[in-house]
Write a structure and sequence with these properties.
Layout lengths: L2 E5 L2 E4 L4 E8 L5 E7 L6 E6 L6 E3 L7 E6 L4 E6 L8 E8 L13 E2 L3 E6 L1
Parallel strand pairs: 2-11
Antiparallel strand pairs: 1-3, 3-8, 4-5, 4-9, 5-6, 7-8, 9-10, 9-11
Length: 122
């Protein structure tokens, strides 16, 4: 069993930065992903990182602005978000996938955190 707890969300202005953190307990040798869900919209993929950290993948909407990283010694995954836009406003979720290759599909992730709210004002 894996438990995930996100932190770091908040209210910022357009152009600002935030760093989200996700701490994992239990077995953590999984692909780790970040997803987000805005009101009235489906949950969408943001970024994923392999266990070793040498493989990452991003949604086109965040590529070049967001960076996913992990510190396995601390069982943490991070999402550095720069140049934030109002359309980035959402609840951000950390998730773990047991698959052997990375995936962008939410239903292929086995464990989820409770989410952290990010609000970007214009």
């Amino acid at each position: 069993q894996v438990q995930l707890v996100e932190s770091g969300g908040g209210l910022v202005q357009a152009g600002d930065s935030l760093r989200l953190s996700c701490v994992a307990s239990g077995r953590t040798r999984y692909f780790m992903g970040w997803f987000r869900q805005a009101p009235g919209k489906d949950r969408e993929f943001v970024a994923v990182i392999s266990w070793s950290g040498d493989s990452t993948n991003y949604a086109d909407s965040v590529k070049g602005r967001f960076t996913i990283s992990r510190d396995n010694a601390k069982n943490k995954v991070y999402l550095q978000m720069n140049s934030l836009k109002p359309e980035d406003t959402a609840i951000y979720y950390c998730a773990a996938s047991k698959r052997v290759i990375y995936t962008r599909a939410p239903d292929e992730y086995d464990y989820w955190g409770q989410g952290t709210q990010v609000t970007v004002s214009s």
